[in-house]
Amino acid sequence: MYELKKLCHDLHLPSGDKFTQDWAYELPEQYRTEEWLDRYIRAYTHSTYSKTQKRILMTLILDVTNDLVSSGISVSTLTINQALKLLLQDYNYHMELIEYWSLSDEPLADCFALTPEIRKLKM
Hints:
Largest sheet: none
Number of strands: 0
Number of domains: 1
Low-confidence stretches: none
Shape: globular
Radius of gyration: 14 Å
Oligomer: single chain
């Protein structure tokens, strides 16, 4: 997957032995901080990446955002707000991700920490 290899190269991220669809979810903890999230957001907004690369980046952005919210970082922080704003800005393009993270048919107690915010975007 050329798109993912290029992102890893550009952002200096580990690629591992193989590229899988779960790559974003398997990225080591050291790349899942607020500083790295800011880097992913900048790459998403200030690049000429393809739609596929932006979809990969948004998957990573949402997963790291969820980790941060789960760890107690407020959804009102600037970085978290920027991540959600990007998702809303490209809503039509990321509808599958929005559906995945919103878990519409599940009670909030069984959902991701980020689910309430994603559900707000759907309204």
